[in-house]
Design brief:
InterPro entries: Homeodomain-like_sf, TetR_C_34. Residues 91-209 form the Tetracyclin repressor-like C-terminal domain. This is TetR family transcriptional regulator. Helix content is 75%, strand content 0%. By secondary structure, it is mostly helical. It is globular and about 60 Å long.
Length: 216
């Protein structure tokens, strides 16, 4: 792969690297398996080339998480663009469906909070926080226009959605050691890797509860 020269080439190369990282995560079963070596191999780039874009694995993963926030925002905007009067159940379904369409992002929500934000310099952490917060505000605004829920209720729903999706992804995609343990002791395992139905059930219950509390 030739060295990127123009600003457009560099932007394309940076996106190629993020797609390569995402592909590695999907192929190997999670963000925990992403290494710089695996990403550069997937992208067809020498590891020294990757260093021109990301100084560390943590910076690469945080960039991937930042990209995920933008993808979630765009997905919600797409689903709500022509809709109004969404019920609490319908609103919860939009949040659940768009979030679970981004499995690597669901995985990254755990890693970002646990260590990625703290393992980069303060300016990179600031940029991530600013971008994630802006995306969340845009998601809330899109849902506020389309839903009968209030903006405050929507913000609460989004907070719960992020935490629950992150947790469900982790328990539904165990490490090899835990997967073997669950084969030996099925009662300890989590049923299935599809977090969609469980996330939808939790968010539906929460959203309807918010609406009922406001009118009760």
């Amino acid at each position: 792969m030739q060295r990127a020269r123009s600003a457009e080439d560099k932007a394309r190369r940076a996106e190629d690297l993020l797609r390569a990282a995402e592909a590695v995560a999907l192929e190997l079963g999670g963000v925990r398996h992403i290494t710089l070596a695996a990403v550069t191999k997937q992208a067809g780039l020498h590891q020294t080339g990757l260093r021109r874009y990301h100084a560390s694995r943590e910076q690469l993963l945080l960039e991937l998480a930042e990209r995920g926030w933008g993808q979630w925002r765009d997905a919600v905007r797409g689903e709500t663009a022509e809709r109004t009067g969404l019920t609490p159940v319908q609103t919860a379904a939009v949040v659940s469906r768009t979030l679970t369409s981004l499995p690597v992002f669901c995985d990254l929500l755990t890693h970002a909070v646990l260590h990625l934000e703290g393992d980069v310099d303060i300016e990179r952490a600031r940029r991530y926080k600013a971008s994630a917060t802006a995306a969340r505000d845009d998601i809330a605004a899109a849902l506020d226009r389309a839903s009968v829920l209030t903006l405050e209720q929507i913000i609460s729903l989004l907070a719960v959605a992020g935490f629950v999706a992150a947790g469900l992804w982790q328990v539904s995609n165990p490490t090899p050691t835990l997967a073997r343990l669950y084969e030996e002791e099925p009662r300890w395992g989590q049923a299935g890797a599809d977090i969609g139905p469980r996330l939808d059930a939790v968010l539906t219950t929460f959203a309807t509860g918010l609406a009922a509390a406001a009118t009760g």
